[in-house]
Each structure stands twice: as C-alpha cells, then as structure tokens.
Amino acid sequence: MRNTYKSEKIVDLIVKAYDQKKGVFKNRINAEDFVPKNASNKNKSLFLFYIIQLDYAVKSKYLYKRGVKLFNENPNYFTPIYILNLSKTKLYNLLINRIKPRYINEAVKRWQINSNILIEKYKSNPLNIFNTSKDALIVLKSIRNFRGFGPKIGNFVLRTCINVFNFELKNIDKVFQPVDRHNVRLTYEWGFLSNKKMSIKNINNVKNIWQKACKEADVSWLKFDRALWIFGSEKGNLESII
Length: 242
What we know:
It is built from eleven helices and no strands.
C-alpha cells in the first residue's frame, strides 16, 4: 500500500503512537532507556559517551545490554583513566569479549584516543562538553572533534544527552537528526526518495525532509528521532498505528 501522507503528518502519527505506546512502541527502548540506574550524572554521561561511540554496524539493543551489564560490574570500565591504564591487548580483550562491537580495532582506537581528549579538554567528564556553550551548534562542534563522532554518532550523542540531562540549548532546531539505514529505508518506502541506497545524496535528503517536517508538525526532532529509530528497527508500518 503506497503512502499518501505528507511528511509532517507522518511525524504527527509516529510521535502520537510513541506517546500512546501503540504498536511497535509498546516497549519503548532507546539509548536513553539504557542509562544505568542509581549512577551519578557524571557516570551516566561516561557510559553514554563510551557506548554510543560503538553504536555502528551492530544491533543496538544487544550493545547497550552488554554495556549496562559491564557497567554494573564495575563503572570504572567506562572511565578514561582506567581505559588508558589498560594495555592495548587488555582493552581489545575487554571490548571483544564483553561488548562485542564489530570492527574491534577501530573500537579500541576510539576508546583510547577519545579518552585522551576527554581528560585533556573536559576533565574526564562528558557533561563538561555541554558547559562550553548554550548554543547547540557550538556544542555539536565540540562533540564532533572526537574520533568517530560524525554526523550520525555525534548528533546521536547530542540528542541522547539533551534528553537524559535536560540541557536547554538554543538553535537545536538547526541541528539535523542522525540518519541511519532505517531512516533512509522508511523515507524511501514512504515515497520521498527514489531509492534506498545509503548515499550522501539520500542521507542529506532525509535530513532535510524530516527537519522540515518536524518544524511544520511543531514537534522536536529530539523526540521524533527516538520514535523513528524504534519504528525502523522494529519494522513498523503506518497502518498499524493509525
């Protein structure tokens, strides 16, 4: 069945279904929902900082469940000083045996390099990144200076930390939501793209389509992105939430 809804109507339908826990949203699970309970805000931010940078080419819910289990055993596993005190071999074994990310060599590099930056620039506390400015565009620029924190991971970190820690930043509507293969596939299936390739052209089109749609629907992309991620990863369909 071909979609006949405008993009802003789709935003409205998905967010309302998300709020009502309807269909695929019955069990709403986002990165924000995997934050370790009974931890300090600093430790929560460290967990998100380290685990989100591994959120590529792997089923996210398994990644976060493994991360939470490791954190609950010892929160120090997610602190820069502890990580940098491990040899490369020990860090490799910790990640591959406990977190199990793909592209393990890149994962090791990210944790080592980003730990150094976090210590040198932000006193080992990711929350300090958000103290650099009240402007989302400037904060995002700081986030994107870390290895692997590109348009997807970097913007994802921004979204998650704003949602978890209630940061209030201006110009958030000028930031694009992160785009993954699910966003591209859904945007194609709904008739807004000519194909579902993960091309630069399609990724940019998806960013613009949903940024505009969120504005027209008067919905924050910070919320729509959470809902769209679940909708895509759980293979939702519009008919099931109407």
